[in-house]
Amino acid sequence: MVGVGMLMLAMSWLGARQIRRRGLQAKWLARGLVAMTFSGWVATIAGWYVTKIGRQPYLVYGVLKTVDAASSVSAAMIASTFIMYMLVYVSLTIAYVSVLFFMAGRGVAAGGAEGAVLNASPSSMEISPKLITRK
Length: 135
What we know:
This protein has 6 helices and 2 strands; from the N terminus they run H-H-H-H-H-H-E-E. By secondary structure, the chain is mostly helical. The chain folds into 2 domains: 1-70, no CATH class; 72-135. The protein has a two-stranded antiparallel sheet with strand order 1-2. Helix 1 (2-22) runs antiparallel to helix 3.
């Protein structure tokens, strides 16, 4: 979890430095940013695994009794909670990916392939509320 967080931080700093100096011209930067799309989710799942697996030695060596570690919540309640969480996460993922596709399509439609922001330098762009446009 910490490693993925550090990778996210390093990628954002490296990306900001690259964009400030040369614009979004590097393909490796674009591919790296795409690769980091779901890294927050990976970090969350990794942290959850570390938390759950970290309890096991306490159970094995008798420090924590199984009765204390087990929950008294019914299986039906656990299943319904799991289903609700899955519905929320699936809905958020669909919304996230839909917005990404919408924004990507809008950017290409506005400037065409030749006038895309990827080929612009930071000094030749101005930021507007709708999109980044050339001066």
